[in-house]
Amino acid sequence: MRFFKMNGCGNDFVIFDARPHGALQLSKDQARAIADRTEGVGCDQVIAIERSIRGDAFMRIWNADGGEVSACGNASRCVASILLDERGDDGPIKIETLAGVLKAERTTLGQITVDMGSPLLKWEEIPIVKAMDTVRLDYKVDAGLFHLEAPGACNMGNPHAVFFVNDVKLAPVSVIGPRVETDPFFPDGVNVGFAQILSSERIRLRVWERGVGETKSCGTGACAAVVAAHRAGLTGRLVTVELGGGDLVIEWKASDDRVLMTGPVELERVGDLLGAA
């Protein structure tokens, strides 16, 4: 089966076109083997493009640990780019996911904009273990000299907790990230963001992704960071998010509550299941 090796702001994917086959059935071990950067193709997530009756295609997502998840913003942009190239126009198109149907189109600058839908903000929608205000969770974690508390939380098709830090470069992401990800406080696990507010229009962000680890970029994490920052009164609704692999522009629209994500995609190579070309 042919695959596309692509990335969105450095967040990289092995994307299989399974539409001629109807679906792609991968075990956890198979997904892990493909994602393995030493013996496999290597990626943060494995993606399958499948047939859909609700959209132009269905996108299935496996994290590097083999677990299947509902949403991935950067992968959505990559899949949209493939579908738009096939169709020969700039959209819009519809991509069905387990989290819902996403609309995407290509901008005049060649980037891809995806409508990520409305954020889920209730405690039971994220979910967390008990009822509380999700603007600033009653939650704290310590790692050596670092004490972090009161993250903002939302669900962007997957759960996110966003801590606000003074200097994201110094944040102990690899220590706090896995600890928070697996804390029973978050029954479904959680993606963990570390956001430094640079201005009302700019955020610097690192993300520990659930089932993956720290990645160069996280699209849903960037969306969650802007939602959390705006709810806390730290930014406006239109924010550029600086990530390790590049910038994403996130707009949380006041008019209809939708979150729009715009950023670049890159095709690295095309190959097959047995070897890259």
Helices and strands in order, then pairings?
Elements: E1 2-8, E2 11-17, H1 28-35, E3 45-50, E4 57-63, E5 68-69, H2 73-87, E6 93-97, E7 100-106, E8 112-115, E9 140-143, E10 146-149, E11 152-155, E12 159-164, H3 173-181, E13 191-199, E14 202-209, E15 213-215, H4 219-231, E16 238-243, E17 246-252, E18 259-263, E19 266-272, E20 275-276
Q: SS-based structural class?
A: alpha+beta
Strand percentage lies at: 35-45%
Number of domains: 2
Termini gap = 13 Å
Known CATH architecture of the largest domain:
Roll
Give the low-confidence spans: none
What kind of sheet is the major sheet? Answer: 18 strands, mixed
- Assign the CATH class of the largest domain: Alpha Beta
Overall outline = globular
Q: Write down the CATH topology of the largest domain.
A: Diaminopimelate Epimerase, Chain A, domain 1
- Considering DSSP H and I runs of 4 or more, what fraction of the residues is helical? 10-25%
Cα Rg: 18 Å
Number of distinct beta strands: 20
Mean pLDDT: 95
Structure characterization notes:
With 277 residues, the chain is of the alpha+beta class. It folds into 2 domains: 2-115 and 264-276, Diaminopimelate Epimerase, Chain A, domain 1, CATH 3.10.310.10; 140-257, Diaminopimelate Epimerase, Chain A, domain 1 (Roll). The protein has 4 helices and 20 strands. The radius of gyration is 18 Å and the shape is globular.
